[in-house]
Amino acid sequence: MAIKQRDGFSGKFGVIAAAAGSAVGLGNIWRFPYVTGENGGGAFLLLYVFFIIVIGVPVMMSEFVIGRRSQSNAFGAFRKLSPGSAWWIIGLMGIVAAFVILSFYSTVAGWTLEYVYQAFSGNFAGKNITQLNADFANFTSGSWRPLFWQMLFMIFTAGVVFAGVQKGIEKYTKILMPVLLVMIIAICVRSVTLPGAEKGLRFLFEPDFSKLSFQGVLTALGQAAFSLSIGMGALITYGSYVRKDTPLLSTAVQVATTDTIIAILSGVMIFPAIMALGQDPAAGPGLVFVTLPGIFQAMPGGFYFAIVFFVLLSVAALTSTISVLEVVVAFLIEERKMSRGKATLIGAGAISIIGVACTLSFGPLKDFKIFDKTVFDLMDYLSANIFLTFGALLIVIYTGWKLGKSNFVDEINQAAKIPKFLSSTIVFIIKYIAPLAIGAVAIGAFFFEGLT
Ligand code: PHE
Fold it and tell me: What is the CA(227)–ligand 1 centre distance, in A?
C-alpha cells in the first residue's frame, strides 16, 4: 500500500504562525479581560503569567514532541508511542474537549461577526455604556440572529479545515496577526489616555492577593491553558505536521511570548477604558463587546477602526477554531478512515448542535441551568478549568513518566542541540514541578471551595 504523504507546515515560520494563530484568539481579547475582571485584576494576572511559564511552555513542548514523534492525531499518537496502554484516553478527552470548546467559542465568534456588521452600519455612534449594554443584551438574547452568525462562522471554520492544513491554515495567520497587534497597540494608546484611565492600569497591574480565591487560582491556570491552546491535543495535532528541522523549544517560547503579550495588551486596552467609561470590570462575557465600541467612539477614525478591528478579531478567532476542529477531523481521517470532506462535515455538524444550546443560553434557554450555570457558562467553565487543566496534567505525567527523558530530549534536539542543563531542567519541570503545581491547584479548588 502506498503511504500517503502527510500534510505539513512549510517551515519554522509557518509553524509559529499556525501555533500562534491557534493560541491568539478570543481567549486573549474576550476571555482574558473578562476572567481577570471577575477575579480582581493584578494578582490574577501575576499568577496567569507564572502558570504560562512554569506549566504552559513545558506542556506545549510535550505536545509538540508527542505529535512530531508519533506523526499522528491526538488519539493515535498515544497508541503509536505506547501501544497496549490506556494513555489514548488523553486523546479521547481532547476530542471531547474540542466539542466543549468549539460549542461556546463559536457563539462568541458569531458575536464578533455581528459586531463587524454593526460597526459597518455605524451603529455604535453616539451611544453611552448603558445603551451599548442594552444593544448587546438585545442581540444576544435573540435566537435567529446570533444563531445565523454562529453557523456562518462554523461554515468558515469547516471551509478552512477542509482546504487542508498548510494551504488553509498557514496562509491567513502570516499576514493578519501582525496587523491585529498594531491595531491593539493603537487602541491601547487611546484607552490609556482617557480621563480616569490610571485606575484601570492599577486594577490590572497592582496585585491584591486578598481578592483571589482558590477558584480564582484554578481559573488563572485554566485561562493559561486555554489561551495557549494546550491540554486537548490541538498542539499534538499541529506538532505532527511540524518538520524535523524545526526547533521545538524556541517555537514554544515564541508562541507563548506572543500569546502572553497580546493578552496583556488586551488588558491594557480594556481596563483603563472600563474605568474611564464607568463599566463594571466583573460584567462577565459581554465585557469587551460593550467596552470596545465605547473606546472606538472616543477615537479619531473610530468608525473605520471598529470595522477593521472586529474583522481581525473574527480572523483571530478563526485561526483558533480551525485548530480545535482539526483535532476532531485528523482523528476521524486517521482512525476512522474518513475522507477529509466527510470528516469535516461530521465534526463541524455535530459540534454545531451543542453550539446551538450555547448560543440560546442568552435568550430562550437562559433559565435552563445545570450546576447553577447556563449551558454556555458550563461549557466555558468546563473547557478551561476542567478539561484543559486535567488534560495538561495527564500530558505532563505521560511525557515525564511514560515517554521518558531520552525520547523527549532526543526529539527536542532534532533541529538544534540545546544545552544539557536546559533540557534537564525542562524534564525536571515536566516530571515533578508541573504535575505537582496543577495537582495542588486542582485539589485546593475542589476540596476547599467545591466545584464552582
Ligand atoms: N487559544 C485559543 C484562544 O485563546 C482557544 C483555544 C483553546 C484553541 C484550546 C485551541 C485549543 O482563543
Answer: 5
